[in-house]
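Q: What does the assembled structure look like for these inputs?
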Amino acid sequence: MSREAPPGLGSPDPMSTEEPRQETMIINMGPQHPSTHGVLRLLLELDGETLVSCEPIIGYLHTGIEKNCEYRSWMQAIAFVTRADYLAPFHNELAYCLAVERLLGIEAPPRAQVLRVLFSELNRISSHLVWLATGGLELGAVSVMLYGFREREMVLDIFEMATGLRMNHAYIRIGGVVMDLPPGATEKIADLLGVLPGRIKEYEDLLAKNPIWIERNAGVGVLAAADAIALGVTGPMLRASGIAKDVRRDEPYCGYETYEFDVITREAADCYARFEIRLEEMRQSLRIVEQCLDRLEEPGPVMVEDPKVRWPAQLEVGPDGIGNSPAYVKHIMEESMEALIHHFKMVTEGVKVPEGEVYQVVESPRGELGMYVVSDGEHRPYRVKIRDPSFVNLQAVPTMANGGLIADAIAVIASVDPVMGGVDR
Amino acid sequence: MIPAELADRLRGEHPDVVLARGELTVLVGRDELLDLLAELRDADDLSFDLLSSVTATDWPGREPRYWVSYELYSVTHVHRVRVKVGLPEDDPRLPSATSLFPTADWHERETYDFYGIVFDGHPDLRRILLPDGWEGHPLRKTEELGGVNTRFKGAFIPPVDRRTS
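A:
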């Protein structure tokens, strides 16, 4: 009995001498893929191993943060925006609070500004460490993954000590920060300053001259400066293309103009240059943290005095995060009716923000993080638009990856360092 | 240039220049939008080469109902400007800026997705963050926060705020 080949199989004849078919293959990579840095989906068109075109498809982590903010008080919205780019929660909070403060026409006290800078920079280090860890993993450098997360944990311990939470802290508030550093925190930060430089050197020794690492990164994903600007790319990616744009230096906030640090640039514009820049930026952040510690020796308030703006309660870190201190609860429940009324008004309605709009930018670990905040003069934000750098930078992936090998696309995405929580918001 | 100088520079040709809280806003009609953006990008003393963000706000009951805003930044001169275009409720469309600023592509798709504002001449105006089959434009003020019905084991579960038990 003769058997027929099932349709589709057996043709073309493997012995055929005809020319191979000029066809490309469409492949989906993600959204659940270990190398796409989160729930990012890429629609790849491949010609063999070569990438003909690719299209990033996003939205798998869309949580409606911007819409939610419009239904909360000005203060509650902080807890939403901090969850956008979840690897840079302090930067989200900072951009939002600075925007609201500008609408209110107030400024946080000096010590609060120093704490904001301190946590921004520690956050930049922890975020770059995650980039190093996951980026290394995606390119097969598994040991770097373990090292990166190990050191990040040290930074997160400091966050936990100061804010009660490892991520999504809602520590920076309108008019200042929630509370001063707890006892022992400065010593812990000083310990970190002692350890990290050696560890960063270790990563550099491990990777910078590693032939595989160089092979995978050098000359890969080149993005010329003109293209980068046209595509709105900012942050380490733009600085890797030789353009020294850094919001901290160009449009300083929280007194960044009084700190000493360098804006690192490279000319190569490839994945390796972005690696060098992020390593060097961690060192610069450590420099700033060191200066912050010096300034923290001077005590002072960490929140504005205005009772119509500041949170009424004395807060402290409990076992489940930040909460009202027992002494304060006793005060409003047993001692003062006025304090209770004021507490009730501030918690239910909160601050009233004059009509207007502002666009506040800060330098997040991934680039220019903008908050476009609009008020109609009420107790809730009328519109909060988060201009997330990952969202914009991701758009440059096809420009960098097309025409290269599919394996290079992984290196390109790793070098963009997109955080999908920020991309999809 | 500092915002006040910029305001003087722009006031010559564009009467609707607002300077508030240190930020400069140029209000413009949709027909003049592309000309203005091109001028802002190409004039040597302005050179707003980086389009930072595009978004919209919705003011139902007012005329115009929608305001589309463009945040521009100059890498060369380190200054910023905002361009705003008002759009009527029954015809929310304006020309796409993608030919001038390639980065506008995703920003405009997002604005279309959230507000239903149509950017004429956009190469690929599809939803970007919401699923393709989504109905409505959720950031319009006329859409409630609520949720959508979820199908679970053949039955529809109403969103949290509409559950009766």
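The domain at 65-309+351-390+405-424 of chain A is CATH 1.10.645.10 (Cytochrome-c3 Hydrogenase; chain B).
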